[in-house]
Amino acid sequence: MFNRITRFSARGAPPRAPAPPSSVAPPPGSPPPLTEEELSHAPGPDHRPWHRSRLPKVLILGLVLIFGGSWLATWIQTGAGAASVDEVTYLGAGNGLNNAYIYIPNGVTAKHPAPGILVVHGWNNSLVMMSNTALELARRGYVVLNIDMEDHGLSSTVPAPGDGALGALDGLRYLTSLQIVEKGRVGAVAMSLGGLEIASAVAADPKAVTSMYFMDTGCFAVCAMHINQAMSVGTGTEFQTIETNFAPQPGVINGATVKNAPILEKWAGTTQPLVPGKLYGSISAGTARQFWEHFGDHPFSTDDPETIGDVTTWFGETLGTPVKASGLIFLWKDVGTGLAGLGLVIFLFGFGSWLLQRRTFADLHETTPEYRGNRGRMWWLFALITTLVGPLLYFWATNTGFTDNWFGWQEVSTAFSFWLGMVALVTVAILVGCYFLFGRRSGMTLVHYGISWSRGLDWGRIAKSGLFALVVGGGAYLILIFVHMAMHVDMGVWVLPYQTTTLGNFPFMLAYSIPIVLYFLATSTVLTTIRARNGQASLAREMVTNMVVLSVGLIGMLLIFYLPLEFFGATPSSNVGWLMMAINGLGLIPLVPTLAGLMTYYFRKTGHIYVGAFVCTILVVTFLVGAETTFGIG
User: Fold this and answer.
1) Which of 15, 93, 412, 569 has its CA at 20 to 30 Å from residue 38's CA atom?
2) C-alpha distance from residue 478 to each of 154, 471, 472, 484, 616 (Å)
3) For residue 444, how many other CB atoms are within 10 A of its CB?
4) What is the C-alpha to C-alpha distance for residues 135 and 74, in angstroms, rounded to an integer?
5) Is the backbone of residue 578 left (phi > 0), alpha (psi -120 to 50) or beta?
6) Rounded alpha-carbon distances, angstroms, from residue 217 to 76, 196, 237
């Protein structure tokens, strides 16, 4: 009896037991009752000051991954403490301001100089893509200058690109002017377009360099010069003839057979097909030639342990300081930047969730509208259409935007923006047609699509959704800037680097935002018509479903392109625009599921398409403009 003590309220009456669930059916047309998950996230601001409110665990996890991963990356970038890394700027051709990272091994001074190596990235890249090569060279005792070419990364745009070999000549002169660099022992390594630029730089200053390495590129102007040269190529490179200086060679089908090209036999001084790894010529006479191959495609060379190991071996043999190629640590840097990139994605969810509980944005936190979209076979048909529209338009639209580049802006950004704009137009046409054919009969309204409110369009809340996205996306970008300035690393991995850009590129962001936001508004609307389990799925299941729907078609498209290339030695196209956009399309594999997750998450949290579409737009625009270039080759 004493174990069954009744608690009384302050007024002396026992608390009332919760009412049992009502057995009365809701009136027709009313939304379904809220789930426990939705009740736990019901609208209602946290009135505590922001600095006293509890941060969500997911936000804390995101921040830990960002700064923990960035710390790991910056430590590995120093060669695990074997060198210092600093960002430097110097004037180049046309008074352009060139940006670079300089790696100085411990103990290297003007009294104790070391060999120097210039590192140059490829087209549509920045120095980030060559940082793995740079750190492995620096930890082996070389002073390394890893540059942003003109109009790439954080280097300036100059009126007449090419005056200084797109910054390669300027970088070479800057490197050789340093007292800590040993005279007569300087090398250069470059990837893709960078090969053309270091060849141009050395042709302009033949005595500056004694050893060169071409990663998935050609020797161009220096092929016949008495400078030790090595070359590597991926057996699945997208560019079938780039290693032969863009000149079609009889019998050259792909990277696996490029060693049979007559022009490379002449380069190595032999009449037989090249033997990978064999040294031709004489190092002491400056006529040494060596050819390597590796599995993988064109951009894989920058993250390939075999290629980077060959680079370190080559310079160890030709610059007079033999070093071991084993013990590579750069993959740990990729782990660090990858964790930081994952943390930034988690931050976009966690920070937004926390903001929706603040009084300023609490009115955006609304329940999800009743589902009246596709069901049964129509669901599968509409999901199939949704996954195929983007891939079917991809190569035509991106190649058109890439090659035409109507305004002379960033070619790849223009290509993607044009593609997304075309997908948006087709998607809107499908939505309108399906509404008149099926939607009206099921009672679909703009409210169910997440476009409108019961009282109509609320432009104030749409504007507030944009402000919310600016706070969330801007917060992520400010963290990126801080990490870049404090730690000299960026976020993401391989072909998906998330990096800062210059103020001069912000007008591009505004212009590209127009077609991109139209795409996300249209795609977010489509997703409201194919919600998992007819709108009754958990948030996690709905997010995964939408990730699969938006990704599977793109993955299939890339497999159709790359499987024949990697295993059967042939590309579906020799069109340069197609090849460029196939490479850039690789970044869609992790990016699209992230965007699908953001759209789904914010639709479930706000009941409308705007917040998710705006957040995704800011993420994509800042990624595109930061990662791409304004220099054009189309």
Assistant:
1) 15
2) 16, 10, 10, 10, 16
3) 18
4) 10
5) alpha
6) 27, 8, 10
Amino acid at 472: V
Q: CA–CA separation, 565 vs 584, rounded Å?
A: 16
Residue 449 token pair: 């699509």
Output the pLDDT for position 243. 47
Exposure on the CB side of residue 254, measured as CA atoms within 13 A: 22
C-beta neighbour count of 217 within 10 angstroms: 29
Place of tokens 């996690």: 540
Q: Quick one: DSSP state of residue 246?
A: T
Polymer length of the chain: 634
CA 179 to chain centre: 37
Structure tokens at 83: 């060198």
Which H helix or E strand runs over 437?
Answer: none
Provide CB contacts within 8 A for 559, sequence distance 6+.
Answer: none
Please name the helix (run of DSSP H) or strand (run of DSSP E) that holds residue 306, with its range, or none.
helix 305-318
Cα first-last separation, the chain: 88
pLDDT tens, position by position, 191-207: 999 999 999 999 999 99
Q: Report CA torsion sign: 293, 299, 302, 305.
A: negative
Q: Are 247 and 241 a contacting pair, CB within 8 Å?
A: yes
Q: Please identify which residue in the block is written with the tokens 């295993």.
A: 567
- Give, in order, the Cα–Cα distances in Å from 321 to each of 228, 230, 393, 481, 575: 15, 17, 52, 37, 43
Question: What is the rounded distance in angstroms from the CA atom of residue 202 to the CA atom of residue 195?
Answer: 11
Tokens linked to 583? 């490479």
- C-alpha of 433 from chain center: 35
In this structure, what are the phi and psi dihedrals at residue 300, rounded to the nearest 5 degrees?
-65, -25
The mean pLDDT value for 310-332 works out to: 87
Which residue type is seen at 118? L
Kind of pairing, strands 97-105 and 279-280? unpaired
Q: Which residue has 């390394």 as its token pair? A: 144
Q: Which two tokens stand for residue 219?
A: 């020797």
d(CA 428, CA 461): 23
Model confidence band, residue 579 (pLDDT cutoffs 50, 70, 90):
confident
Give the C-alpha separation, 78 to 139, whole Å: 7
- Sign of the C-alpha dihedral computed for residues 245, 248, 249 and 254 taken in this order: positive
Task: Phi first, then psi: give them for residue 119, nearest 5 degrees.
Answer: -120, 125
Phi, psi of 406 (to 5 degrees): -55, -35
CA distance 562 to 488: 33
**Residue 528 half-sphere exposure, CB side, CA atoms within 13 Å?**
33
In the structure encoding, which two tokens stand for residue 296, read together? 């993988």
Tally of CB atoms within 10 A around 4: 5
Q: What pLDDT, on the 0 to 100 scale, is given for residue 32?
A: 55
Using an 8 Å Cβ cutoff, are 513 and 506 in contact? no
pLDDT above 90 covers what percent of the chain?
65
Nearest partner of 453 among 461, 443, 464, 442, judged by Cα: 461
Unique residue bearing structure tokens 């997010």: 543
For 541-562, write each residue's pLDDT tens digit.
999 999 999 999 999 999 988 8
Tally the C-alpha atoms within 13 A of residue 330's C-alpha that lie toward its C-beta: 27
Residue 147 bridge partners (DSSP) = 100, 120
C-alpha atoms less than 13 angstroms from C-alpha of 348 in its C-beta half-sphere: 31
